[in-house]
Design a protein that fits this description.
homodimer; about 900 residues; alpha/beta; Dna Ligase, domain 1; D-amino Acid Aminotransferase, Chain A, domain 1; Glucose Oxidase, domain 1; 5 domains; eight-stranded mixed sheet; eight-stranded parallel β-barrel; 36 helices
């Protein structure tokens, strides 16, 4: 027996979405719960796949099954497909599992031909209407199925309007329509070489084929690529008996949401038109009315509709997006689906529905896309605003900001302090620019990836940032940047010009744009409190400053998972001391510089530990290579070369130049000594701690002195000292001893007893692979998945994202960007090994993650699955992480 | 009962080396096979460890066990320790498991005091002799055990010589000696605060303590560090009754090897002195005689000695290094051990002993240290030559060469072609220098590590190279380099000065030095043929050129494991075309350049496949990032800056400068576009193949066209096409298809059928972790352990070796440099995972290794253990690998 390719609506149900498509499954469901749905049938997605498997041939018995099903529809309605007297007309719609713009949408009135058009006239007693249906059908069908030119039809239409002297198509007389239909058919023959099919079954077959084909048109393919929808799902085809909303004033059509999709308020939200078909609403010829007005116009229908909305919400236990048609005073449901909504609405609806006992907390948690919370946490550009986008870079730190262009950090600082709103624009930022970044509303750079200095600093500060905007050509000398315009020429934006940046999308926009302010409603807090009840994994934040820690705490973080001490080294007033330390010729000189840094670091740690009092704070000792704190090598080379040239050509000031040259050359020499071919894999992390134990020693002392001070002041503190980049147990053993010795020394000096733990980042494959050994020396592990992804893939993030990950996406080489979504197969496998081996050695081992994946929902789910104790992310992602962690717990319970 | 700390010689045996030390175990063994050994006892290494465990206290009952054993020795000899009439005198010697210079060596004549010295006089009838023994004992014991000053004794000795007016100590009269002994004792009391101990048992206890302590003196610790000997082995102490070789002309002492340790010839090799003690031989006062002369002087003793040598060789089945003493015409054996030997001797002795049926082939294989074969494969500096070493760099490519200093590749080429011997000296080399390298005898660079361009190219060519010689300051302008001298000042070496370099040790030497030429003896060939019989793992070579392939084949390689195609791109005449390809603005331009490269690459592949006809050749498609083929960014920046300055200051030639400036800036822009932060983790390997499929397409075509040509000419070829740097199966699937399509196209075009395989490097952790998937698309795996080590450790080799691996060695953080000895725990774990997962998917998967570890014995053993099919290494390491592979098979059979 052949496979079942065709289902009557009454044979399906909502759960059969992958077979019947979203639309078909819901039509079936509505039919079966007794709602008024025009009868019809659905051709399965499997039929579509079989069609492609057979080299674009229909699978065996498909059309005979369609015919058989159609006969049952005919029986139900007492009409016959192709019957000149009482013809059954149908609509044909695609219906994929995920709704997909770009695919063929709808063919209405299929079944009309030169004969059945008379039957329709008969049945409706309206020749003009019947003819208009027919000419629309020819137009739509010839366009979509036969490939005739849309413009040619418009051309003919126009000529008839002119001839008859009317403005709108609906003013055309039956005679005009009749003549026009003949012209249409001639034109179709001429341009497509085919006669317009008169056989309704041939029409239907053509329409089904067109739906199948539209699955693989360019727009659909691109849409699937962007939305990561598999190519092998296929589309279903819905063939449904026609109902008409445009047969008179007791007819109409409309769409409605059961709740406000923008705010979540529990009121019907939608619009309708009397005497109109769906396409009229879309065409915008008449302005639709608010759904509430239907109550006055058709009270009975309205009551029935409200009732059905209630049934559907209860049935689907979710806010519904509904299409309906009224024919001759009778209400017909054409579609229902879960309604799309804003983040704010999603939160409110979820919380309200729990209070209405429609869903439980676990379900509520799953109703909100964690990533959408970002909208609620940052200012954003009003989505209705009209924008002039002048360039697009990487969305490095969410939010949006408008301000005057400034190219210099000092100027940014000065202007910012006067209250001026500014956007700091740089090719890239360095630690030298921090004071300018602090005062800027937003940061825009032309180079650097999602982990560039600008991006990392901005995210941490919750400041918006667009980086790596490569079409921007910045000319510091002229104090302007140039971008190519859409027209192909170049446009300059000068210092003081106003621009806006959208850190959530990467857009750079001309001028000031309207913004929506973030608001954290009580529903938001309620939902997240439920998430906290449900989730089993802790959520901490990555923060380096007391104010960031406070922000994180306000967002619900219960600890700091990563406090990067190098950001403290990079503060503008400290950099000279850090440089002095680096340029030291020997241990004694270095210790002099370190002694100056000690009280500063102590103050840093004091502040952050105090802000997080009662919660653990994981402090990572110095991680980046030392050359990051020194001037750029190329800049120095240019300086030196210029001075040499000046010496050669200019006669004056030789003395002064020579002395400066000597100084710069000495600095250049040091920079060159520290130069690394692959700094990512270079002299950093614990490797620094081993070659310069005095640096880590100073940091440990600063931590413990701050701890002792706080304990004396009565604060509860839980410091965790973290050694970065360990690859071998011996590294950790050596440095752990240094930390323990320092703690004991500080306890002895201050007479204060305090608790602390020592642990390590797991961010290099070898550490994961030998976690059983490393756990002997570590009280905790924290996965640094940014670096672990870099080393596991052998991808330098900065290089990969700008050089080849784009090609990888286009060619579908990698399913996801592994720097955004944790790679479970590779990186995840190492994490799993590390957790298992680590806990085998030390069952009480605390394990967390502090890479950027710690704030990404799918990655958080993986962390939940392998049993991590906490995730840690930037403060503004803490709510997202809390929600995602709860979803992971529900999904995998 | 207490532990047994003391063994009489007759209680031990050779196998107890770890308990009794090497010397003690062999004394016991000789005693038990009936050879004449002066009776004695050995205190175990466990006693030494117990001593340290007890805070430097003797373990319980140690001295009582010593006393009991000593009583048995007394009984055997009829003498008594401390007996004024007939005293037993003993020597006390340290005896670690591995012989260790730097530890306390020997105390002789222990047991002498003011009374027993008379007993010795009585027994020997020689008062002068007895007194001389006593004063020597006081001197030695006070120095070693009591810490008296050696110089003070010499001072007193000198005063007595002066007083008596004699030149040598042995001319001193008994009276002088007697008086001197009193002076010695006074001096010892004065300088050490202790009386010289008169109680022999106290003397013995002090000597034992001194031996134990010497285990942890600075020199011993450093020696263990260098030779990687564990610190917890401890040393044994041998207490042996004295025999005297200096009691008259029927006495003597000597050392001998049972075969020539330099050549391996089977003739007794050694020397002796009549009427002398061991220390006299060392002191060099008299010249020892060749051992053969003993036959005339003491025929019976000589015959007995020859006989004993035979017994010992048969017993130990190895060449022996023997110490003996003759007292009153009686021969005593004082030590035997396996003799150290040169590589040449090791090979000859091993092969000879198989022919003598002394050992079997498996044993012979194990008798030669694979690394030592290097000596036989390269010229080397005569080890007896006196050298002026002026600097030391990294031993980048073994061998040695002398030649005139040249700083420029063009000049090197020109001079080299005239037959001049030259050493090319550069800060670092680039592909531009290849023509100079080819003509040079050796390469010396001041920058770059073991994988720098110079090092890699030199190893491949079998040319000697010292690189990263950082004390060298090269001044191209002055055509000289400057090095600091030992005296602390600077010395310049100019172009044309002659230097020598030793690529096996990294030494740079002034002037020409005597060299030893390599010679591959028939024994060498025999031994390696046995290795081939025994080993189960294949040995291939890494080679890029036909002549290298031929060399590898001559050394016994049975295939090419890695043919790097980029080296072909770097040839001087091709670089401009490669650059043209890179600078192409679009696909069309790039294809024009690629079309020019195609015939060149085809010729390359033709040559190497032909040279290796009958064997597989694994060709890796382009691997390095494209910027490696472009000029250095900093150089371009300097150029541009100079031109800008010239424009500013100089008025003439503005036009010309401007045009050149524009061109250079364009190039700089491209270089900057290609710039990477971490090129090691950047846009290279298959990532290039995916973004520029036309490059890999050209290479695949060149390979297959060469294959078709060779097949037509009747050659058997086995091409393996290797895709580098795969991290995800999709990369390999995409590129494999490209290769397969190309092969099919070439077969269709040429009408020639040929076989080939497609596989991948496993050089990134993710590839190893997902090997089960990757094996679906790969017919072979080849471990690129250089890169795999870099990514598994997160160590950039270039940076790690120059920046922090030194500290790691000093602090014993890592047991070995993982770039030299494969890290079994981390990298090895990944390899094991990859082999298991890969073979689970594809049981017939061919797996090899082509990183530098492929030529390192311990790494080869690991490859054997995890079941690899082959190792591949540079041609000159092929013999080493063959031997190491055989040893691995024997050791793990």
């Amino acid at each position: 027996m052949s496979k079942k390719w065709v289902y009557l609506f009454e044979e399906g149900k909502a759960e059969m979405k992958s077979l019947l498509g979203g639309k078909g499954a819901n039509l079936a469901e509505m039919t079966n719960i007794g709602l008024p749905v025009p009868p019809g049938l659905t051709i399965t997605t499997e039929a579509c796949n079989a069609y492609y498997d057979h080299g674009k041939d229909f699978p065996e018995s498909l059309m005979s099954q369609v015919k058989a099903a159609l006969e049952q529809v005919e029986a139900k309605l007492g009409k016959k497909f192709g019957d000149p007297q009482n013809p059954l007309l149908v609509s044909v719609r695609s219906g994929a599992v995920f709704s997909m713009p770009g695919m063929m949408d709808t063919i209405l009135n299929l079944g009309l031909n030169d004969e059945t058009v008379n039957g329709l006239t008969e049945a409706t007693q309206n020749r003009r209407f019947a003819l208009d249906c027919y000419r629309r059908f020819i137009q739509m069908y010839s366009d979509v199925v036969l490939g005739a030119s849309h413009a040619e039809f418009e051309h003919i239409l126009e000529s008839y309007r002119d001839k008859q002297g009317v403005r709108f198509d609906n003013e055309l007389s039956p005679e005009s329509l009749s003549a026009m239909i003949e012209d249409f058919k001639v034109m179709v023959k001429k341009t497509t070489g085919q006669l317009f099919p008169q056989d309704p079954m041939a029409q239907l077959e053509g329409a089904i084929r067109a739906v199948f084909s539209s699955w693989n048109n360019d727009r659909a393919i691109i849409y699937r690529q962007i939305h990561k929808i598999p190519d092998d799902l296929g589309t279903a085809v819905n063939v449904q008996s026609m109902v008409f909303g445009n047969m008179g004033n007791d007819c109409g059509t409309g769409v409605a949401f059961t709740r406000n999709p923008s705010t979540g308020e529990k009121t019907l939200y939608g619009e309708y038109l009397i005497n109109a078909q769906g396409e009229d609403v879309v065409a915008g010829i008449r302005t639709p009315l608010h759904i509430s007005l239907l109550q006055e116009e058709m009270p009975a229908v309205f009551d029935q509709f409200v009732n059905i909305c209630g049934i559907l919400e209860k049935h689907y236990r979710n806010m519904q997006d509904i299409e309906f048609t009224i024919q001759g005073g009778k209400l017909w449901m054409l579609q229902t689906r879960n309604g799309k909504r804003t983040a704010a609405a999603a939160v409110k609806i979820a919380v309200d529905m729990v209070e209405e006992n429609l869903i439980n907390k676990e379900e509520a948690i799953q109703r909100v896309e964690p990533e959408h919370l970002d909208q609620l946490l940052h200012r954003r550009i009003d989505p209705t605003a009209k924008l002039t986008v002048i360039a697009t870079g990487l969305p490095a730190s969410p939010g949006a900001a408008s301000g005057k262009i400034v190219f210099d950090a000092d100027e940014a600082e000065a202007l910012g302090k006067t209250g001026e709103k500014i956007i700091l624009v740089r090719t890239e930022t360095t630690p030298d620019d921090i004071h300018g970044i602090v005062q800027a509303q937003g940061i825009l750079t032309s180079r650097g990836g999602m982990t560039s200095h600008a991006a990392v600093v901005a995210r941490q500060m919750g400041k918006t940032c667009v980086c790596g905007c490569e079409t921007l050509r910045i000319d510091y000398a002229r104090q302007e940047f140039i971008v190519p315009t859409a027209a192909g020429d170049l446009k300059a934006y000068k210092k003081g010009d106003t621009i806006s940046i959208d850190g959530s999308t990467g857009r750079v926009i001309e001028g000031v744009v309207p913004m929506l302010e973030p608001e954290l409603t009580s529903e938001f807090q309620t939902l997240l409190s439920w998430a906290d009840e449900i989730r089993t994994i802790g959520v901490r934040a990555n923060a380096d400053k007391p104010q960031e820690a406070a922000q994180a705490r306000a967002f619900g973080a219960t600890g700091i998972g990563l406090c990067r001490t190098e950001h403290m080294f990079m503060a503008q007033e400290r950099l000279p001391i850090v440089q002095e330390m680096i340029l030291s010729q020997n241990l004694e000189e270095r210790q002099v510089a370190l002694a100056k840094l000690l009280p500063m670091q102590q103050e840093d740690f004091y502040g952050i530990l105090k802000a997080m009092s009662g919660f653990p704070v994981c402090i990572r000792l110095l991680d980046p290579p030392l050359h990051e704190f020194l001037p750029n090598e190329e800049d120095l080379v240019v300086e030196v070369t210029k001075m040499r040239c000046a010496l050669e050509y200019a006669d004056d000031q030789k003395e002064a130049i020579l002395s400066k040259l000597e100084e710069t050359e000495a600095l250049l020499k040091k920079v060159r000594t520290l130069h690394e071919f692959n700094p990512m894999l270079g002299h950093r992390g614990c490797r620094l701690g081993i070659t310069y134990p005095e640096i880590y020693g100073m940091q440990a002392r600063a931590i413990f002195q701050a701890v002792a001070q706080l304990v004396q002041e009565g604060y509860e503190v839980e410091p965790e000292v973290e050694i970065p980049l360990v690859v071998h147990i011996n590294e950790l053993a050596f440095l752990r001893q240094l930390v323990v010795d320092t703690a004991e020394a500080v306890m002895a000096e201050t007479g204060v007893k305090f608790e602390y733990t020592v642990g390590t980042m797991i961010e290099v494959p070898r550490a994961a692979l030998t976690a059983d050994q490393i756990a002997k020396e570590a009280q905790f592990f924290s996965f640094g998945t940014n670096d672990l992804t870099q080393t596991t893939f052998g991808f330098s993030r900065d290089d990969a994202e700008s050089k080849f990950l784009g090609y990888y996406r286009d060619r579908k080489i990698l399913p996801e960007n592994p720097f955004i979504v944790l790679d479970r197969e590779g990186v995840g496998q190492l994490m799993k090994i590390a957790v298992e081996k680590g806990r085998a050695t030390r069952p009480e081992l605390l394990v967390g993650i502090c890479g950027e994946h710690g704030g990404e929902p799918s990655s958080i789910e993986f962390c939940h699955l392998i049993g991590l104790d906490f995730v840690s992310c930037s403060p503004y992602r803490v709510p997202i992480a809390r929600l995602a962690a709860a979803q992971a717990a529900v999904k995998n319970s």
